[in-house]
Amino acid sequence: xxxxxxxTITDTMLKRVASIMEKLGRINDxxxxxxxxxxxxxxxxxxIHSSLAIENNSxxxxxxxxxxEGKIVIGPKRExxxxxxxxxxxxxxxxxxxxxxxDLLKVHExxxxxxxxxxxxxxTNGEGVYDxxxxxxxxxxxxxxxxxxxxxxxxxxxxxxxxxxxILSSIFHYEFVFIHPFSDGNGRMVRLWQNVLLYKWKxxxxxxxxxxxxxxxxxxxxxxxxxxxxxGNSNLFIEFMLKMIDEVIDKIEDNTLDRQITTExxxxxxxxxxxxxxxxxxxxxxxxxxxxxxxxxxxxxxxxALEKGLVGCTNPDKISSKNQKxxxx
Length: 329
What we know:
Number of helices: 14
Strand content: 5-15%
Distance between the termini: 49 Å
Number of strands: 5
CATH class of the largest domain: Mainly Alpha
CATH architecture of the largest domain: Orthogonal Bundle
Structural class: mainly alpha
Shape: elongated
Strand order of the largest sheet: 3-5-4
Radius of gyration: 22 Å
CATH topology of the largest domain: Fic-like fold
Order of helices and strands: HHHHHEEHHHHHHHEHHEE
CATH superfamily of the largest domain: Fido-like domain
Largest sheet: 3 strands, antiparallel
């Protein structure tokens, strides 16, 4: 119960928290993200690509998207499996208990499925944290992993109502990296777990690709870890992570999100919001959407929604049938 990660609250942290809270308030007041399933999916793809790229996965964003959509991708077998694993792990986020070590091991088992022989188990050997070939620091001995993880999870549980979630999740991030509890997958796991902690606080974080911002500042990310290790506290890392969160939320406000909000996405969202629980003909949808061209309806609205499995049709064998009708899945 006496365990306390070494850090102090700084003015920089408080200013960042205030900035983030103000922006989150504006987003909640003006944007109904719950009605944007495509945006949430694309955020997940972006997050997975960035998190894996930090760990030297060479697949492009488009290749990652194709793997997730079940398309054939030419690339290293291990890297393709990493994408599949990460996608399944990120799908677990809504059901994860962020204070459960058992859940941590379950997610790690999924994250390293068919890749690591010790998937779902803590490491039993000594490990170090590297930035490329540069050793950042040596991790605690393997025999200390379980007690340190237990202390960390108990700490965040006991302080979830006392320390602001933005700061607490960043403390967790640094301490987890320091403990380095797994032989592989620690970076992927801790970035996902910070998402879990933030999502449990505010579900809007399902739409915030924090990993993409960390990838953009990857060098500074490792430098912050190294400096904190030397300083003996996590202050600089907490400030760094708050900066990442603050900056990535700017993209939500600006409706840019790294190519995620496109005409296709917006059209599909409009279609889904227009459709109720019934079944609609093309003409009925055109009237609801105020569209005069059947080609526009088909190419700009229905085709993307059908391809993504968000809309179904009553006669899939004859997609162009004049009697075709559509429904929301």
